[in-house]
Amino acid sequence: MNNSKFEEIASSLKEAEKTCMAIDAVSKSNPELEIKDAYKIQLINVNKETLSGKKVTGKKIGLTSIAMQNLLGVDQPDFGHLLDYMEVQSNKIDRSTMLQPKVEGEIAFVLKDDIQGPNVTIEDVINATDYVAAAIEIVDSRITNWKINIIDTIADNASSGRYVISDKKVNPKDMDLKKVTMKLYKNGEKINEGVGADVLGDPAYAVAWLANTLYEYGVVLKKGEVVLSGAITAALPAESGEEYKAVFSELGDIAVRFI
Predict the structure, then answer these.
(1) In angstroms, how far is CA 99 from the centroid of its own chain?
(2) What confidence score (pLDDT) does residue 64 get?
(3) Beta strand pairing status for 56-62 and 78-83?
(4) Residues 5 and 38 sit within 8 Å (Cβ to Cβ)
(5) What is the layout of strands, in order, in the sheet containing 181-186?
(6) Averaged pLDDT for residues 37-52
(7) How do 252-258 and 92-93 pair as beta strands?
(8) What domains sit in the chain, N to C, each tagged with a CATH number?
(9) Distance CA 259, CA 256 (A)
(10) Residues 63-122: tens digit of each pLDDT
(11) What are the Cα distances from residue 141, in Å, to 70, 107, 146, 148, 226?
């Protein structure tokens, strides 16, 4: 498949995001696409955003749970790019600006040093992390009814949508990230709960995986970037008028409201 086709697919995904009008799965009409092709499509849109003046603020890791990997028939996570316009202001989101958002509670890593693969370890990640914090990621898919496989979500910037991070900053060396608990509430009602170990066994391992995978694409995790390490529990569909809160054992809580 040539670059003009990649450009065409990237443009259709970006148009779907801007207009909030979902499109059919790109994998359905382009069955020959491979994972490496999907990342090329993702990067086309990321590069266009940065050329227009937007800033990459970090990365996100997806498909970190066995349940989600089984659902999409894969045995690996994926990654996407976070940009400045995705950061939620005042903990409020205009629901009309998103297609079919879902809320996830996550542990965010904010880096004090660059992390570059190919042999990054959990210890390397902890040493390079300035602090960890409670976070909510709002994933969104530009594909109709979330009917996606791994090709679709990667091309669609790993279904990135919005994110919000708590002001509370905690040194990752002061806790066992695997044992951090999280409860996710919708309108004050607890819907689900989990622990850090539900993210590939250790959220810091997820970040190490990311750094080592990015090496294959010539990308480095940079000082000051945010890394969303992956959903601790199942994502919850969000609608206007709803409030979601993620309550963490050592990290405090973070909330977001859809208006």
Answers:
(1) 16
(2) 86
(3) antiparallel
(4) no
(5) 92-93, 252-258, 243-248, 181-186, 189-195
(6) 97
(7) parallel
(8) 3-258 (3.90.850.10)
(9) 10
(10) 887 767 777 777 789 999 999 999 998 999 999 999 999 999 999 999 999 999 999 999
(11) 18, 21, 6, 9, 21
Quote the tokens at residue 244: 């979601």
Count, residues in the chain: 259
Query: Is the pLDDT confidence value at 167 over 80?
Result: yes
Stretch 177-181: mean pLDDT: 98
Tally the C-alpha atoms within 13 A of residue 47's C-alpha that lie toward its C-beta.
10
SS3 for the chain is CCHHHHHHHHHHHHHHHHHCCCECCHHHHCCCCCHHHHHHHHHHHHHHHHHCCCCEEEEEEECCCHHHHHHHCCCCCEEEEEEHHHECCCCEECHHHCCCCEEEEEEEEEECCCECCCCCCHHHHHHHEEEEEEEEEEECCCEHHHCCCHHHHHHCHHHCCEEEECCCCECHHHCCHHHCEEEEEECCEEEEEEEHHHCCCCHHHHHHHHHHHHHCCCCCECCCCEEECCCCCCCEECCCCCEEEEEECCCEEEEEEEC
Return the bridge partners of 92, or none: 257
